[in-house]
Structure formats: C-alpha cells, structure tokens
Design goal:
Layout lengths: L10 E3 L16 H14 L2 E3 L12 H12 L12 E4 L7 H14 L2 H5 L4 E4 L10 H9 L1 E5 L13 E3 L6 H5 L11 E7 L6 H7 L4 E5 L8 H7 L1 E7 L7 H6 L3 E5 L15 H4 L1 E3 L7 H10 L3 H15 L13 H11 L13
Helix pairs in contact: 3-5
Main location: Golgi
InterPro entries: Exostosin, Exostosin_GT47
GO molecular function: glycosyltransferase activity
Amino acid sequence: MAATTTAVFSIFFVLLPSLSAASSSPYHSAATLFQNYHTMLTTFKIFIYTPSKPFDFPNAATASLFYTSLRRSPFLTHDPTEAHLFFVPFSPDTSTRSLSRVVRELRNDLPYWNRSLGADHFFLSPAGIDFSSDRNVLELKKNSVQISVFPVVSGYFIPHKDVTLPPLSTSTLTLLHAPVEKSTATSFLGYLRWDGETESQLVNELKSDADFFIEEKSEPPPPLNHIRGFTESKFCLFLYHGDVASMVEAMAWGCVPVVIVDRPIQDLPLMDILRWSDLALLVATPPHGGAAARLKQVLNGLSEEKYGEMKELGVAASKHLVWNDEAQPFDAFHMVMYQLWLRRHVIRYSRSEIV
C-alpha cells in the first residue's frame, strides 16, 4: 500500500511467516514463553484481599470465568509475605466513592499497598475505569494492572500495563471440532456477522456485494450459519467495539480476522504473548463512502502465500484464546496469568522511605 494513501484509508498490519519455517510461530518468543510458563506454574503466588461482601460479574462472562478460575487456582497464597502480586476484588458496579474507600483502607490498614504505591496490585473491571481526581482511584488507575474485557473504551486502557481478556467463543464445541487445515477453496472473500442494530455505511455497502457474506444476528441464530461463514470465507470481518465474540472461533476454523477500526489499537488480548500484528489485518475505512471497494482492494491485494501463513498461525494461536470451565494448560486463563507474571517485578519501598 503506498504511503500516500494512508490519509484516505489507514491500514495497520504485518503478515505471518509460515509455521514450517524454523523461526516461525505466533509468539513473540516461543522459547521464552514455554520456559517461563513452567517457572510461573511452580513459583507464581497471588494474595487476594477479602472483599467486603461476595460478588460476581453477571454481565461479563469472561470476567466471571477469570475470577472463578483465579479463586480455584494453585497460584493463591494465604501468606501475603510470599505474594508477587495482590488482587483487589470489587464489584463491577462499585462507585468511584466506594472504590476510593477500598484503596484508602488498603493504604491505611495494611502495609502492602504503600510498598509499591499499588504497582504490585491488580484488579478486574470488565469495562475498565477512567481517570479520576480522587487520589486513591487515580493511584489505582495509574499504577495497578487493570484487567478488562476486550475491547476497552478509548482512554480506559493503558498499554503495556493493562491486560484484556480474550473474548468468550460463541461455541466451545465448534472450537473442539475446528479443522487443523482448511481448504483453500472459498465461496466468499469476507464474512461479517452483524448485530443489525447500529447503522454502518460499510455494512450497507457490503450487503450489495456478492463477494461478502453478511449474516444479521437473530435469536436464535440459524443453525451452523456462522460455521458456514468461517469455512467458506477467506476473511472474517469484525467491527471494533462491535461483536468480537466469534473472533477466536473464526481463527480456529482458519478464517483470517480483519478488524475494522479507525485507529491503531493496543488492547488486543495476549499482546505480550501473541504477535497480533502478524495474525490479523487491522483496517480503517475512509470517511466518505467507497469503504467496501477499498476493503476489497486491500483483501485481494494479499498474496496467497501470505494469506496461507496468516491462516496457519491463526489456528495455532487460537488454542491460547479458549476459555474452559476448568482451566487447562496454556488456555486463556493461564495466558492471562502469564501476562500478570511478566508484570511481577516492581519497585517496593521500605516503610521508612514512604512519605
């Protein structure tokens, strides 16, 4: 793509090398991951503060799965002196005032927060929290690791500190039966499952193009319609801040994800582990019409060799994005834990140094 076209249609992507190449994998560093993963399993310790009252995340399935898996996991310790990180639990509907009180009590009643000003703490907030003028909430936001549901509202996510949870697949069963290899013969260039509720100029243009399969979500959905979309399409389209639940499923079936977004994004799940810039196309549509035509130009411009490489590595990467009722090795829960483990090294101050 010529550099002069970026003002009209921004494209942010890097293509994957093949798995058959010796140095290729969907990871930033496969050797580092697998060596450190074992160390994490045997050494990583987390202390959970006792919440004021029991709660759950009823409207955020991935958050609920993570919270449940964490409380069941062998990473927990009842001895805060051996903990690498501290988890601050609070209900997703906690007000700013109540959240400030939670942090204030940690600061005043226990010694651990003040040793790092909260940098060795993390919390789970499905939607993320905004910056606040309140000192306690601001310190939590700026210093502690926030875990949120992907995608996060702009401004609520701090890159390289915060973490997002992989989306929950619409059907774990279909993931289990997804083929390792997919036929190169496809009926459609792109597939989009659209909620049908929000107005989209791009979707309206794609509907009239036979090269695209647009499925409007219904309750209940047509049987296996989305599987047809994954298996008969080269690319699966996702509107950023739209329905991304089936992204993992699409990758498992060998459909290369294309995220429609108006800016580079930094909150993709497992960004410390997976080379997302190598796994997906991130495409921004032009502001004034012609979006479908330009999108086709981009997708058709991808060589078959590069497409095959992306598809192959997408299937491999999808294994780490799957949620299980009972956590399994290298699944979504353990990969999120691995990202937390990478953040365990923080400066801790002695009590005499704290002012």
